[in-house]
Amino acid sequence: MNKINKIHSRFVPLQEENVDTDQIIPARFLKATTRDGFGKNLFRDWRYNNDNELDPKPDFILNNASYTGEILVAGKNFGCGSSREHAAWAIKDYGFTVVVSSFFADIFKNNALNNGLLPITVSESFLASIFGLGKEATLSVCLEDQTIAIDAKGAIETFEINAYKKTCLLNGYDDIDYLLSNKAAIENFEKNRK
Amino acid sequence: MGKTLFEKIWDTHIVQEVTDGPSVLYIDKHFIHEVTSPQAFKGIEDRGISIFRPDQIVATADHNVPTLNQHLPITDALSRFQVDTLIDNCKKHGIELYGLGHEHQGIVHVIGPELGVTQPGMTIVCGDSHTSTHGAFGTIAFGIGTSEVEMVFASQCLLQTKPKLMRINIEGTLGKGVVSKDIILYIIAKISASGATGYFVEYAGSAIRTLSMEARMTICNMSIEMGARGGLIAPDQTTFDYMKGRTFAPSGAAWDAKLAYWQTLYSDVDAAFDLELNIDAADIEPMITYGTNPGLGIGITKNVPTAADMQDEGEQKNLEKALQYMGLTAGQSLIGMPVQHVFIGSCTNSRIEDLRLVASLVKGKTKNPDVQVMIVPGSQKVAKQVIHEGLDLIFKEAGFEIRQAGCSACLGMNEDKVPAGEYCVSTSNRNFEGRQGAGARTLLASPLTAAAAALTGVVTDVRTLL
Ligand code: SF4
User: Fold this and answer.
1) Which residues, 6+ apart, have CB-to-CB distance to B334 below 8 Å?
2) Which of B16, B81, B434 is opposite residue A26, by nearest beta carbon?
3) What pTM was computed for the model?
4) A2, A144, B122, B235: which could form a disulfide with B239 (CB 3.0–4.6 Å)?
């Protein structure tokens, strides 16, 4: 897995609450058997009219070329609904490394963390100030220090992350490496169960 | 201090505590299906490791299968390839597969319980958020992502942080025409689509105790729709009676031993919850949703809320957006509104009891000619039972179309979809934009309310037909 630490980037503001994984990647695109290529169908039905790639909806933020960057900023309860990890893959494949919201659905958060996509939970007020920024504004994230800053304003907020997950992201480890190193303990546990 | 039901199960499944991190949680049963497993199999192969406990995995094909002509090859090439990939992977890794054509095939959350694979006190996972369904038996059951499927393949374990615990007590007697789907839609409307995020929910109280296992499954199924990781109900005589004699349930001396253990699975009187909620069953009326998340629901006689009912600007904006998508107006009543489709199926409401309920209402009647009605049994076994009990005749006479087992129009992935702009009263669990097909407008409701709409062609308070 990719390592994450410092990210300095512009951002894409998606001012919607309760963005569910059916919007992030509609079910009809889940027929793939690999993890690649989901980015082109990210927010498919919000992005295009009549499912036509030649007919983008001009109002949708991903179709507005003046917004760019590897940070997606969204309203609260991001990633609710289905457990499909394809949602995290689509966001990552599109080119985002960080998703910022004031609240994440549980399974999405885990899926993101398991794929080197950093979910950052900020306060409602911090989120509002990001949404209030201009197109050229940049954010700075430091995973090591667990901080996210609005560069122009000097505003900074710390975020929570599970210490174990932080180590994984900083070093590019995943849970399987950890679990495999504990095979003996797992076999022991199985033996001792009634 | 006493322990909660959740803690009793959790504590006996912890292999190891990780300092400052999640615990290593042992998984008893792992269900897989065609959509969220291929990348996990690939991951295992890329790492050059084998599946640790293949005999603790049960596979089925459900999401991406047609519900007509299942004996024929799947016509959609991508779908066929995905289902074939599952067949290959199961063969290669020695995993039991109940694929198309198998007598045990069906929606993963319907077959686990009906086969007796799901048993009290277990930890159960599946790459599907409605794994919470199995909690009805007093299990810790939750949905996982594909990376986690791969973890369980590799080690039969997951790294998990203990969730907070909530108990929802539903006391009293349900009114006429009110069923378990209404209970859970009522709860979600009350606490919102994110109201239980971070929690595992135990459902308790006298109203829950009187429910059948099927009805309990409907409630646990939708726990995820309020953000909860899972929901569970303490097993009792109803549970044990349901379990007895199931294909994979223990028998003889093994049954007695298991039963003795199962009877210890309840929350002690002095157990502590992080949050408790009390609900009076008498307050619940038949429910229906008007919006684009399952929390946007109302009692059938109530009006769609207006901006003034919303707590903040964000909620107002959400309401406006949802109503625009749904083609509805703030403050309107839904009763009498024409619908074009009725979908009775999905892991929420496709069990035999659900179909009996529908049959009891439509027996001897015919559907409104302007509505298309689809009944999709949750499993081959349910489909067989429908015929055995003669319910198929009632449905055919009513003009309902009966399909073969699968997820069907619940998720707009297979061929069964609702056309853009049209309304569907659906017994499934999600009314997200495009969930039942791009542009489709879903109104979630109970099997009774869905059947009522099928008969009248409009949103109907089922109590007026009883
Ligand atoms: S019936 Fe619907 S909710 Fe249930 S497992 Fe299938 S797709 Fe998911």
Assistant:
1) B288, B290, B298, B300, B304, B328, B443, B459
2) B434
3) 0.94
4) B235
